[in-house]
Amino acid sequence: MAEPLLQARGITKRFGGKAAVDGLDLALFPGEILGLVGPDGAGKTTAIRLLCGALRLDEGEVTLMGLDLRRQVDRAREHIGYLSQRFSFYEDLSVMENLRFFAEIRGLSGVEWGPRANEILAFVGLAEFTERRAGKLSGGMRQKLGLASALVHRPKLLLLDEPTGGVDPVTRQDFWQLIIRMVRQEGVGVIISTPYMDEATRCSRVALLQNGRAVAEDTPENLRRRLAGRIVEVRGAPLAALRAAAAGLPGVADVQAFGDRLHVRLAAAEPETAIAALRAVLAGTDIRLDDARAIAPQLEDVFMAYAGRGEIQDA
C-alpha cells in the first residue's frame, strides 16, 4: 500500500478551554479526495488550518511527505496549496498580476511562473481573462482564480475550506469538475471541507465530524451501506402528525423531515414490519398516508444517525 501523503494523529486545538478539534486522526493518499463533512461548529475549518500550519497544534502531530509540520513548517508548506473560505486577492490587479504575486511569494522565478501561470489559467478556464481586474470577476471566476493561485506552485496537497459556499449550483458543478480533473491529471491529494452532502458523495472517503471528532470515516458507499434496509420514506399529511405517529412505533430509531416527506430510520432492517405497523396505527385517523416504502439510504441519513447517537450498530 502506498505511503500516506499526509498523516494527522490526535490533533487537538482548544479555544478558551473548549476543544474545536479534539484528538482527530486523518490520513490522505495521493490522488485521493478526503471530505470533512459536518455542520457549522463541527471543527472543519479549524482542522484545515491545523493541517496547513496556519494554527498551532495544542496536541498531536501532522506529517506531510515525511516532514513534521511542527518543526519543518516552511518546508512542508512548499507542498501545500490552500484555499480558504474567503480567498483574498488584489482587486486592482489583473488576473495575471495576482497569479504572478502568489507565484513569486511561493519562490517561483519568472522563468518558472510564466509558463505555469498560462498552463493553470487555461486549466481553470481563465485564459481569456488574464488582463481583467480581479475586482471585476464574477463569483465563479474568483473561485477559479483562487484555485489557480493555490495550484501555481504545483503542490502535492490541496486544502480547500468550503470553497463552494454561497455560489450557484452550476458554479459548484464546474468547480468540482476542475477538482476531479486536477486529481486525475496531476495526482494531487485533496482535503475539502463542506457542509453539502451531495459534494461529499464525490469524495474518495468522507470523515463525518461532530464536536471536533470524526464520528465515522469511510467511502460514501460504505457509509450508506451501514443503513441498508433501515430507511423508510413516508409521504402524507399533515406532516407533523405523521412524524409523531411514526416516531412512536416500536423499532423506530429516529424520524427526520426531508422536504415534503419523512425518512424513518429503523433500529433493524425490517422495513415491511415498520410499514405495516404505521398503516395500522393510522387506520381510522385523519392522518393521510400517501406512500411508505424502503429506500436506499442517503449520506444525510447516515450523518443524522451518527449525530443523534454517536454510532451506528451494523445490522
- CATH homologous superfamily name of the largest domain? P-loop containing nucleotide triphosphate hydrolases
> How many beta-strand elements?
14
Q: Kindly, what is the distance between the CA atoms of the first and last residues, rounded to a whole number of angstroms?
A: 30 Å
Mean pLDDT: 91
CATH class categorisation of the largest domain: Alpha Beta
| H/E topology pattern | EEEHEEHEHHHEHEHEEHEHEEHEH
Q: What would you call the structural class?
A: alpha/beta
Number of helices: 11
Strand proportion, as a percent range, falls in 25-35%
What fold name goes in the CATH topology slot of the largest domain?
Answer: Rossmann fold
- Supply Rg: 23 Å
**Shape by Cα distribution:** elongated
| Helix content estimate | 25-40%
Provide the spatial order of strands within the biggest beta sheet.
6-7-8-3-9-10
Please give the CATH architecture of the largest domain. Answer: 3-Layer(aba) Sandwich
Largest sheet at a glance? 6 strands, mixed
The poorly predicted ranges are 310-315
What count of structural domains? 2
Search tags:
315 residues, alpha/beta, Rossmann fold, Alpha-Beta Plaits, six-stranded mixed β-sheet, four-stranded antiparallel β-sheet, 11 helices, disordered C terminus
